[in-house]
Amino acid sequence: MNLVVNGKTTNMSDGVTVSQLLIRENVKMPQMVSVELNGQILRRSQYEETTLKEDDKVEFLYFMGGGNVTD
Amino acid sequence: MSLTEQQMERYSRHIILEQVGGAGQEKLLASSVLLVGAGGLGAPAALYLAAAGIGTIGVIDGDKVDLSNLQRQIIHHTPDVGQDKVVSAQRKMRAINPDTKVRTYNQRATADNIRHIVADYDFVIDGTDNFPAKFLINDACYFEKIPFSHAGILQFDGQLITVLPGDTTCYRCIFSAPPPANAVPSCSQAGVLGVLAGVIGSLQATEAIKYLLGIGDLLTGTLLTYNALTMEFRKVRLARNPDCPLCGQDPQITELKDYEQVVCDLKDCKC
Questions:
Q1: Cβ separation of B190 and A61 shorter than 8 Å?
Q2: What are the tens digits of pLDDT across the range B106-153?
């Protein structure tokens, strides 16, 4: 099935969950990511149980600071 | 208030814009913007806002200029190393535009001081570099109902969103709480392209000016993301979150709180 992940169409096997998508998309630090599915922010506790469907739109939203790591 | 002849000339490129005009320029001269952080994002924002003739600019930062700041914090120059950032920033803004009054707060933003400070301004720019401060600004602006621009940068990526507290998606609608300490990027994953801070900080200043003038479309309910390597800008629509612990249906946050700051010190790092 096709999903749109951060604006790009991506082919994934049927039945993939949000947790699995985070792994397949090589998100190294899932704690630094918030997930929006079809316009709604998911709770972290929903990642495991949420199965994605054809044409779902997923946005991985990253925590970003200010680039100054010494402070 | 009417513009002097010198001001007519100084701001002529604004005044000839139909959407600004003399009345818009007078509005800017009567407006106030608070910059939280005089670093990578705050530097270009401060320079452009001073040049634009914002009447009062507040700068809050408790740091001193470090040599490693100069790669991106263009308001600070080599002779400023070791000086208080707010003093260095104030001097440059005054040199650009004597019309702009600069108020300095030589301190960190904390739960004890920030709410009181943001309340004095029309718009706030979050130019901080750490998550506890970003949550503090979001919450303080929410409680005081002050609009603000949030931004973050990392490596080659940047993002920003404008928040009209209580009306549009806030930072906590997206991220309910700061990331856990062990998840904050390690040194090898940090770093930032200097000019990226200039791009994103300038976009924040653009939002401030548009808000103050009441023109155009703000980045409300919309996260604008930018990647400097691919040169792609994307707008991600973000609806308000009914589960938001601050502005949702059942808010759990009713007062400001300082979160512990997690730091990665390059000086102690073998990367």
A1: no
A2: 999 999 999 999 999 999 999 998 899 999 999 999 999 999 999 999
Helix (H) or strand (E) holding B223: strand B222-227
Domains of chain A, residue spans:
2-62
**Would you say residue B3 lies in a domain?**
no
pTM given for the model: 0.93
A14 CA: distance to closest CA in chain B (Å)? 25
Residue span of the structural domain in which B118 resides? 31-268
ipTM of the complex: 0.88
User: Which CATH superfamily, name and number, covers A2-62?
Assistant: Beta-grasp domain (3.10.20.30)
Q: How confident is the model at residue B189 (pLDDT cuts 50, 70, 90)?
A: low
Q: What is the DSSP-derived secondary structure letter of residue A43? A: P
CA distance B243 to B209: 31
If interface means Cβ-Cβ distance under 8 Å, which residues of chain A face chain B? 6-7, 29, 31-32, 34, 36, 39-41, 43, 59, 61-71
Does residue B16 lie within any of the structural domains?
no
Q: Is residue B80 part of a domain?
A: yes
Q: To the nearest whole angstrom, how far is the Cα of A11 from the nearest Cα of chain B?
A: 21
- Does B174 fall in a domain? yes
Q: CB under 8 Å to A39, separation ≥6 — which residues?
A: A57, B237, B238, B239
Answer yes or no: do B241 and A71 touch at CB < 8 A.
no
Which residues of chain A fall short of a pLDDT of 50?
68-71
Q: To 10 degrees, what angle do helices B85-96 and B42-51 make?
A: 30
Domain count, chain B: 1
CB–CB contact B236 A41 (8 Å): no
